[in-house]
Amino acid sequence: MVGEEGAFVLGWDEVLTEEELSTTLKVLCMSEEEFKEYKEQDGWEDDSEEEENSTLSNEALSRLKPPCKKLLYDSVLLTLQSYRSDLEAEQDLLNNKEAYEKLSRREQQALHVRYGQKRILHQVLELVQ
């Protein structure tokens, strides 16, 4: 369900791997009976039209069912814990001109990437609380 990378791709405005995330959340939040039915039907073939017309925008994330919100929230927390530093530490380093200039160009770029990733993850946390 997750694809080759084993991760979901989140953007500022929506989930870029929305089909994978949507299917994963649905399956993981199913009861045993619902999952048996899902397996027997080889998925939701008749839901394809509904899913084509829906996107997992930030607004849609905030309207997920509570079990899906909790699962997504906990997953984001685990992802944030995998970083060596938190969002505030990255922001402090970005604001400290002297410390920032001591970083190599590559370290500066990595800092910007990490900071952006963490901001998106914190945004998702707020949406699914």
TrEMBL record:
GO terms for cellular component: nucleus. Pfam families: Rubis-subs-bind (PF09273). GO terms for molecular function: methyltransferase activity. Its main location: nucleus. Residues 4-121 form the Rubisco LSMT substrate-binding domain. One of its GO terms (biological process) is methylation. It comes from the Eukaryota. Residues 43-53 have a biased composition (Acidic residues). InterPro entries: Rubisco_LSMT_subst-bd, Rubisco_LSMT_subst-bd_sf. Keywords: Methyltransferase, Nucleus, S-adenosyl-L-methionine, Transferase. SUPFAM superfamilies: RuBisCo LSMT C-terminal, substrate-binding domain (SSF81822). It is found in: Nucleus. Residues 38-60 are annotated as: Disordered. This is N-lysine methyltransferase SETD6. It comes from Corythaeola cristata (Great blue turaco). The lineage of its organism: Eukaryota, Metazoa, Chordata, Craniata, Vertebrata. The gene is Setd6.
